[in-house]
Amino acid sequence: MTDSAATTAADLEIALRPTADPLPEAERQAILADPGFGRYFTDHMVSIEWSRDRGWHDAQLVPYGPMQIDPANMAIHYGQSIFEGLKAYRQPDGSVATFRPYSNARRFRHSATRLAMPELPEELFVAAVEALVRQDAAWVPTEDEQSLYLRPFMFATENGLGVKPADEYRFLLIASPAGAYFSGGIKPVSVWLSEDYVRAAPGGTGEAKCAGNYAASLIAQAQAAEKGCDQVVWLDAHEHRWIEEMGGMNLYFVQGEGANARILTPELSGSLLAGITRDSLLQLAADLGYTVEEAKISVDDWREGNADGSLSEVFACGTAAVITPVGDVKSRHADWTVGGGEAGAVTMRLRKALLDIQTGAAPDPHNWRHPIA
Ligand SMILES: *Cc1c(COP(=O)(O)O)cnc(C)c1O
């Protein structure tokens, strides 16, 4: 669906209406000392409305706060709800930069199209990110591996029980300080290969970052926990044979060691979510001189490669945790352990290389950093 009112960021200014009553400095500092993930929110949010006759309008930065929802709200009943996730990082000079926000803006448009929702212009998406991060810059933590997690989302605001694409939507952007994902060192996660449930099928919504995908995943995650595993690994919907993703993260496989390592990630099959971390690592791994390939990887490839030693490391990647090594693997048929249950050298090298770019500790040859405040 296109934005029929042809609103562009150029003719839509985000009105700044900040709170007169921000959280006192001492309370903010107490939160930033141990923010966890997604538990605390900054003083402000950005809100933009869309209606079929007016297009995008009423863009404003306002105090963070609750909203009233009508019981007949269409997003609640029929699930037109999409989101994004990106981070702002404190830089060595005290400034703040986000990472590849236009990539999130583009993916947000694609998710909207799949859910028959209006596309937010990319410039406006990024303008919202800039406005909120600038306003709430004091909420960007300063410690290693901390960041400000940004959550853009959009949902139907029309009320009614008729099934159809809604005629009204709201875009919101909220922000939440995030602590180090691994407190006390990087520890590989254990995974359960899910054969009872699938996350996504070709032609479905797996390529879109929509709320419903997560709702559908929770029972499989609960099953993984029952089996003593931290995370679920998704297989393809047809054959339950090809590796797709881990929870809400993409997967990478390392063959061989050192400079000769070969790095593989499942190809975008139509049901995988195209992670921006995944995409960045394809580039970074090549920059570091590794052979990189998008390929079909089966459960058997994984098990046999692990047994004969050709497959040395496996890790998952995504904005929230950057890179997470995978250790124990369990399924109905077999269990095995990757890399002796330790984080591998290639995994840790890639993790540092990516974090160094995000946090400004290394040069940024691909212009991924987006300085804001
Ligand atoms: C968001 C998400 C990812 C990771 O994407 P990034 O852009 O790297 O954060 C991977 N898989 C799923 C299912 C996701 O929703």
Automatic annotation (TrEMBL):
GO terms for biological process: isoleucine biosynthetic process; L-leucine biosynthetic process; L-valine biosynthetic process. The modification N6-(pyridoxal phosphate)lysine is found at residue 209. GO terms for molecular function: L-isoleucine-2-oxoglutarate transaminase activity; L-leucine-2-oxoglutarate transaminase activity; L-valine-2-oxoglutarate transaminase activity. It comes from the Bacteria. Its EC number is 2.6.1.42. InterPro entries: Aminotrans_IV, Aminotrans_IV_CS, Aminotransferase-like, B_amino_transII, BCAT-like_C, BCAT-like_N, BCAT_family. It catalyses: L-valine + 2-oxoglutarate = 3-methyl-2-oxobutanoate + L-glutamate; L-leucine + 2-oxoglutarate = 4-methyl-2-oxopentanoate + L-glutamate; L-isoleucine + 2-oxoglutarate = (S)-3-methyl-2-oxopentanoate + L-glutamate. The keyword Amino-acid biosynthesis applies. Keywords: Amino-acid biosynthesis, Aminotransferase, Branched-chain amino acid biosynthesis, Pyridoxal phosphate, Transferase. Its cofactor is pyridoxal 5'-phosphate. Signal peptide: none annotated. It is an enzyme of class 2 (transferase). Pfam families: Aminotran_4 (PF01063). Belongs to the class-IV pyridoxal-phosphate-dependent aminotransferase family. This is Branched-chain-amino-acid aminotransferase. It comes from Mangrovactinospora gilvigrisea.
